[in-house]
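Q: For a teaching handout, I want to show students what a protein-ligand complex looks like in token form. Below are the inputs, and the small molecule is zinc ion. Please produce the holo structure.
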Amino acid sequence: MIAQSETIHPYGMTLTNDYDTFGAASAMVEAAEQLTRDEDARGGAHQYDLLHGAIAALGRRAAAPTLLLTSYLLRALTIAGWAPTFGQCSRCGAPGIHNWLSVSLGGVVCDDCAPPQTPYVTDDVVQLLAALLAGDWPHVEHAQPGQMRQVTSFVAEYLQYHLEKNLQSLSVMDQG
Ligand SMILES: [Zn+2]
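A: Here is the structure, written as tokens, with zinc ion included.
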């Protein structure tokens, strides 16, 4: 179990003057709490290490808060055993870039596997998701706001789908 006050306190001086940074930190902490709430702690100590690194990156302004939050969530989900797939079809494994983005199927799916109503995204969005998951910052820093909005909305939805719960703190991601 990760206590919010213990985690944020050491960085409080830096974070509280910046709403976006504070919002991203709050969302990271809430997600970590939810991901580790079960007794069979999902990722346990690894989750704490990841959270600590992400909060530190926020504190030193390593990248825009939304980018750091989104990358953190993708990696936390991966540690929890819910790694999304962006490099091949997440259902049949067909290689290549696919553009149907499915929360319930865990990433991109090919033309044959995409259920009706699956959102279609551009190659740029798929590559941005992959770059955020991999921590490929030079690629990520060129992200367009429209692409980021699609990416953050997918990641927020994907997290909440697996937690089976809505997290209030994720509203910070709506601001793109
Ligand atoms: Zn497929």
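A: Two things your students might notice: Strands lie at 100-102, 107-109. The chain has a mean pLDDT of 88.
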